[in-house]
Design brief:
With 436 residues, the chain is α/β, with parallel strands linked by helices. It folds into 3 domains: 151 residues, Distorted Sandwich (Spo0b-associated Gtp-binding Protein, Chain: A), CATH 2.70.210.12; 181 residues, 3-Layer(aba) Sandwich (Rossmann fold), CATH 3.40.50; 68 residues, 2-Layer Sandwich (GMP Synthetase, Chain A, domain 3), CATH 3.30.300.350. The chain contains 7 helices and 18 strands. The strands form 4 sheets. A 6-stranded mixed β-sheet has the order 10-11-9-12-13-14, sandwiched between helices. Strand 13, helix 3 and strand 14 form a beta-alpha-beta unit. The longest helix has 15 residues. It is found in: Cytoplasm. InterPro entries: G_OBG (IPR031167), GTP-bd (IPR006073), GTP-bd_Obg/CgtA (IPR014100), GTP-bd_prot_GTP1/OBG_C_sf (IPR036346), GTP1-OBG_CS (IPR006074), GTP1_OBG_dom (IPR006169), GTP1_OBG_dom_sf (IPR036726), OBG_GTPase (IPR045086). Belongs to the TRAFAC class OBG-HflX-like GTPase superfamily. OBG GTPase family.
């Protein structure tokens, strides 16, 4: 089993706020002590933090549920409950976080130490000390803590590399990486020797350095899932320059130019924007007998089929075995990197808008529907939040909730929908009778 994991689906749950407390000051020689119940503490957030020491999402293979602690309840003497600590979840550099329900990108975590709150903890409920008024100096009302945010997330790792090596299986990508860097990828005389991305750092003679990723070999139909398919195509997206490695000896019986067209077609099919990245053609295995003649034919076909106004990609003949032409290739790659900006991975339509943790003023405060058993069902973010934060163990709190519903226009809306005296109304799992 491969120990490389680059996708994961997880569930996160922020902590609930602590409940507020109902308490009264009762001390000798202190008449009319009044309310003394404190507020609950804030629930913990779930925070993703980039850790450069991690290389895969393997930690999320078996641990898929992350739940932060809830805040403490309010206490007597007007003391607040303690807020919960945030739950820190460490992720590797290059992790993209999406909301599983909407598919929107929440954040792209690429810098070491970068933090992002993926689920916010609920605020603490207010204690009865907060509800004292001249008309009601001794209220028996407190709030429950606000529920913490809960969501399902899709994590996708795209390796951080400046340069990506692409090409058919067995064209010599792994050998090239092992020669130009200190990486030790698996090398073998069979297809798909490389089944996980390999990374290495290159340092040129002039002192330039850049990261190179050797990606598993592509074959025709990869963008539709053939071979290793789209499993590793995503890792090309972060690269700024593509080194297109071609077996110029045609040792597998394929035509080098047809290989070149086939791989570009797969890149284009997977993501059209990959074709915006500049390519350098690496004519590998030039130490083989027929390579020189094949390279001549390749250049002729490339020139004949290229737009006359377009700039032909650079071609560098090399041999990873004899190290022929490597210095020139690396210098040209470093020079191309210097003038190539980073590419935007996601446009605005793919990104989720900055989270707003209040109520949308334009959204309806509640919605009314009818269940199969003829029960009226009330729903809506604002209404459900009021419901969850109401302490139904206290009669005063229940009456307050009823007044809030009336103030929101729920009673009138139910009448307009045809609700009659004695009809059942449901909010979540809680049911009560409608009184006209």
């Amino acid at each position: 089993m491969s120990m490389f994991l680059d996708t994961a689906k997880i569930q996160v749950k922020a902590g609930n706020g602590g409940d507020g407390m109902v308490a009264f000051r009762r001390e000798k020689y202190v008449p009319n002590g009044g309310p003394w119940g404190g507020d609950g503490g804030r629930g913990g957030n779930v925070v993703f933090v980039v850790d450069e020491g991690l290389r895969t999402l393997m930690d999320f293979r078996y641990n898929r549920h992350f739940k932060a602690q809830s805040g403490e309840k309010g206490m007597t003497k007007g003391m607040h409950g303690r807020g919960a600590e945030d739950l820190i979840v460490r992720v590797p550099q290059g992790t993209t976080v999406r909301d599983a329900e909407t598919g929107k990108v929440l954040t792209d975590l690429v810098e070491n130490g970068q933090e992002f709150i993926v689920a916010r903890g609920g605020r603490g409920g207010r204690g009865n000390i907060r509800f004292a008024t001249p008309k009601n100096p001794a209220p028996e009302i407190s709030e429950n803590g606000e529920p913490g945010q809960e969501r399902e997330l899709l994590l996708e790792l795209k390796v951080l590399a400046d340069v990506g090596l692409v090409g058919f299986p067995s064209v010599g990508k792994s050998t090239l990486l092992s020669v130009i860097t200190a990486a030790k990828p698996k090398i073998g005389a069979y297809h798909f020797t490389t089944i996980v991305p390999n990374l290495g750092m290159v340092r040129t003679h002039s002192g330039e350095s850049f990261a190179v990723a050797d990606l598993p070999g592509l074959i025709e139909g990869a963008s539709q899932g053939v071979g290793l398919g789209t499993q590793f195509l995503r890792h090309i997206e972060r690269t700024r320059v593509i080194l297109h490695v071609i077996d110029m000896s045609a040792s597998e019986g394929r035509d080098p130019y047809e290989d070149y067209l086939a791989i570009n077609k797969e890149l284009e099919s997977y993501n059209l924007r990959l074709m915006e990245r500049p390519q350098i053609i690496v004519a590998n295995k030039m130490d083989m007998p027929d390579s020189a003649e094949n390279l001549k034919v390749f250049k002729e076909k490339l020139a004949a089929n290229y737009d006359e106004f377009a700039e032909l990609p650079q071609i560098f003949p090399i041999s990873s075995l004899t190290k022929q032409g490597l210095a020139t290739l690396l210098d040209a790659t470093a020079e191309l990197l210097d003038k190539t900006p980073e590419f935007l991975l996601y446009d605005e339509s793919e990104m989720e808008e900055e989270a707003y943790y209040g109520f949308d003023e334009e959204a309806p405060a509640f919605e009314i529907s009818r269940d199969d058993d003829a029960t009226w069902v009330l729903s809506g973010d604002k209404l459900e939040k009021l419901f969850n934060m109401t302490n139904f163990d206290r009669d005063e709190a229940v009456m307050k909730f009823a007044r809030q519903l009336r103030g929101m226009g729920v009673d009138e809306a139910l009448r307009d929908h045809g609700a009659k005296d004695g009809d059942l109304v449901r909010i979540g799992k809680f049911e009560f009778e409608f009184v006209d």
